[in-house]
């Protein structure tokens, strides 16, 4: 165990090795590490940004959806109103039509009835004249007794 | 290596241990300091592990992409980031040197320490088979290697202290701390005391840095050698006796647990060496 030339050699080898590490090994390795750190930082920042954008897009989509829902509600409401209107109109026009039909039918009936009465009256008059002529055994001049017959028929 | 047999036909334990703590040198060293001697094994493994470290990181640096990293690149970058984070937490100044220096120390010293986990006799036996008498394969159990690291760091501490604080500031750190006074006469009395205290603290740094690593790893290696001794003398007849098998099992259990423990020690010591280097250099950068 003694101190000898090995010491000097070791110091020289050490110095060379440190120089080699400092000039050839350390810079590229540190560069790679730092470059990657920078890349990762950028990537994380980009991810954050993406997240924010996604959030915004989601909010935008929600707003659009809400608006669309409101619009749809409005449209449905309008449609219901419109439907109600149509039904109401239809009902009104149908009842008017019905009333008109009923009125015209009643008119018709009235007309028919008065016509039937008229013809009946005439027939009764004729029958009455015939019966009276039978009773009197003679001809009754219809023209002279027209007034009488009419009076009779009006009583019927 | 297979220990030589003593006259009684049993392997010589002392020789075995001595063999494991002897370096492969050009000549027999004389005295404590002898600069004509080179520990070939330490230099070889130190350079080889430097090449391993530089090679692996060079491939990683070449292939480094900024896209999705592979498993290999992830591991290397994890190491780089670990060291860089520690340096950034500790070292306040800006320096292009400190972080790569810390990475080099951490990886290189860990590789030194990792050599301790190879079976104690594996590489010495290989060396023996090609005619090399000795081989110590753990560079961090060589004082020259650990002092080579710590003295280089020490030189950097002095260099940066003077560069940042100026020579006057550097000397002032030694003479005006920790005791200082507004009275010039009292201050003059404090100067030698301060110089003594600060010098001890200052020069203790490289020594403690080197010896902490050395001591831990040397002890770790010695424990492996001692575990190897358990069955060294028993020979083949150990396989036929209960006691022999007990020793084999004991050796296995001890070896396994010490390997795991030594792995942690090696990692920890490499980390401590790196951290202390960073701390010392950041102190060199600090103004008082």
Could you please describe the fold and organization of this structure?
The complex is a heterodimer of chains A (156) and B (288). Chain A is mainly alpha-helical and 156 residues long. Chain A has a domain at 49-155. Helix content of chain A is 91%, strand content 1%. Chain A is built from 2 helices and 1 strand, in the order βαα. In chain A, α1 (5-136) crosses α2 (146-155). Chain A is rod-shaped, with a radius of gyration of 60 Å. Chain B is mainly alpha-helical. Chain B is built from 8 helices and 1 strand. In chain B, α6 runs antiparallel to α7. Chain B has helices at 13-20, 40-63, 71-90, 98-114, 122-129, 143-175, 184-229, 242-285, and one strand spanning 33-34. In chain B, 32% of the residues are buried. The chains are: A mainly alpha (156), B mainly alpha (288). Chain A binds chain B through residues 1-11, 13-15, 17-18, 20-22, 24-26, 28-33, 35-36, 39, and chain B through 21, 25, 29, 31-39, 42-43, 46-47, 50, 53-54, 57-58, 60-62, 64-67, 69, 73, 76-77, 80-81, 84, 96-97, 99-101, 103-104, 108, 142-145, 147-149, 151-152. β1 (3-4) of chain A pairs parallel with β1 of chain B.
